[in-house]
Amino acid sequence: MDFENNLAFAEAMDRDDPLKELRGEFIVPQQGSESVIYMCGNSLGLQPKVTRNVVHGQLDQWANLAVEGWFEGEEPWMYYHKSLKELLAPMVGAVVSEVCPMNTLTVNLHLLLVSFYKPSGKRFKIIMEAGAFPSDQYALESQVRFHGYDPADAIIEVSPKGGALTLKTADIIAAIETSAEEIALVLFSGVNYFTGQLFDMEAITESGHRAGAIVGFDLAHAAGNVPLMLHDWEVDFACWCSYKYQNGGPGGISAIFVHEKHFKDKTLNRFAGWWGYQENIRFKMEKGFIPEPGADGWQVSCGQVIPMSMYSAALGIFKKAGFMGPLRDKSIRLTGYLYFIINEVNKSLHFEQFKIITPEDIEQRGAQLSIVATKHAKEIFGELVKRNILGDWREPNVIRLSPVPLYNTFVEIFQIGQQLLAICNSLPND
What we know:
alpha/beta; 13 helices
C-alpha cells in the first residue's frame, strides 16, 4: 500500500485498524508519565492483563484443594494441558493430537532429536542454516558427538552467497540435493533470529523429504509471528518457546509438534518419563513404557501448571483476534510501515544511515526488521532507550525492531522515525 510519513496518516491507520482494541489487553511499560514504545516482542512479549488473574486462580486452587487440585476443581491439573492443546493447534496449523505444551525450548529440541536424528551408515549428516541461534548449534553439536561423530564432518551449514546477508531458498534446496544421500536430518529456524528472514518451510520440507531425510524446525521466532501449516506441510517435528511473540512470560513453557504420521512408528527412540505414559493406565505404576498416543507421549515430567496457565492466558487473546490470519494481515502493514519510515529517515539524511538486512519481500519476513546502523550504532541505540523506545541490540551494529500486531501501533512507528532522525541530526557528521 501507499504509506505517508506524517502523523495524520499514522493516526488514520490506527483508527481503521480492526484489531486496535487488542492493545488494551496488555500492560505497556511506563517511564514516568509516558508509555514505552516497545519493539522487543521478538525477545520477550508484553504481559497480558489477564495473566495475573489466571495465575492467581491456579494459586487459589493450590491453596484450597492442595493435592486434590490434580483431579478436582474447575480445571483439574491432570488434564490442564488438554485445553491448552486446543489453543496451540490453530497457532501452528496442527491437529490437536500433534501438539503438546511441555518443558522449555532446547530441552524439547533434545528430546525430539533423540527420536528424529537417527544416523545410520553414510546417512548421518545434518543440514542447518549458518548463523542459527547458538542454542540450536550447541544442541546439534552435542547430539552429533553423542552418536560418535565429529560436528565438523556431520553438520553442514548453509551460508548466504556472494556477500548476501540472507539465504535464497534455491541455495538451501541445492545444498540439500548436493548431499542428499548423506543427510539424516534437516533442521532450520522458521525465522532467523538475527536477520529476521522467514524461511520457506514448505519448500525446505519437500526438499528434505525428497532427499530421504527427516525435517524439523525451531519456531522460536516464527510461532505467534507468522502463519504456520505444520500438518499440511508434513513437517516431521518442531518446537518453540512461548515467551516471544506469544507472550507466555519470561522463561515460559515451550511446546512441541510431532506429525501424526509418526504416531505408530515403534522404531522411534525416546527418553521416556511417567507423564508420557498412557494416561488411562498411568496410575497402575507398571514397568514397561507405553506412550500416550500423539505428541503427549513425548512428555517426561508432570505438567507445569503455572507456566501453562500463563501461556493459556496469552493464547486466549490470539483466539479473540481470530488467530494468525488477521494478525498477519496487520503485521504486513505495520512492518511495511516501519520499513517505509526507516527509508524516509535515510532520505532526510541524504545517505544510507540505516541498512535493513531483513528481506523486503513480505513473504520472507515476519514482524522483525534487523537494521544495521552504518555510523554511531551503539550511540543511536542508547539514545533510543533514553527516549523510551525499546528494541534490542545485536553486535556489532544491528538494532532489531519488532512491531507486534497485538499491541504496537502505526503512530508508534511514525514516532520512531521522528526520534531516529532527531538522534542522527544530533550526532557528529563524520
